[in-house]
User: What shape does this take?
Amino acid sequence: MNFEIAPAGIDPSAWAGSAGDTPRVGDLWLLSWNRQTLGLALVARAAASFALVWPVALPSEPIFPPAMVVPDSPLGVSLAVWPTRETGVGNHLFHRRLGELVSERSILRTMQFIEGDPVEAPFALAEPNVDEGDFHAESDAMIDRWEAICLHLWPNPSPGQTQLSRSTMERVGAGIEELIEALGLTTPDAVAMMRGERLPDLGELETLALSLEVDPIDLITAPVSDSLLSSPKFKDELVDAALELAIDEATFRNLVQQDFALAARSDGDPSAQLRAAIARVREIGRA
Assistant: This one.
């Protein structure tokens, strides 16, 4: 499955979908990372930074129990869904909204049916298109694939790539003086680290953590831009820029994070500031 080219039998305009702001219950989404399609998903429940989804398959993909069939879809074909394989997915993987697949009421009734409540299922069981002897292998493959999607994180805090946590520093009453004393930094370097312009490496984190008596991982947290950067509405811009600069999506996101740290302190619309940060990083990469 290629997110740029519509699968056989799917109208290209339907496959193009739209860049939705937030995953909403009942919507069908295409998931991707680093220009690789991960799969189709039906949003069953949505939270601030992630959504619980049901895996979805096109008619040309393996379909096996206990899939249910949604006969009408925004793609113009019937789709198989697996409500019993509900999986959490981070917002950073939601790429393209393909339209509303089912109503919120249908989601609720399906969940009630699965849980054994005396309600009629809104969807019939899907007709398998693989041999019965292959059901187990296909099921295991699906579980492995969606488990990997569930465990995919961005940002993934790591030394040398993540800003110092100002909230942790404030919580323990530490500031620039403590950075200078513990790490032997110059005042400009200490200021830069507090502002997120200089990223602490592993040795610095371990030394600082020992001095402040905290866990090293507590000293690196997600910058304020993360929830915004994870929004699907920026996905196309990030993916296209990473392709142009011949770097992976995670690297480009990390660079934008760092640039945004400066813009985020000024007044103005956060979305506009983030788009400006994307443009700056893109321009620097072209140079």
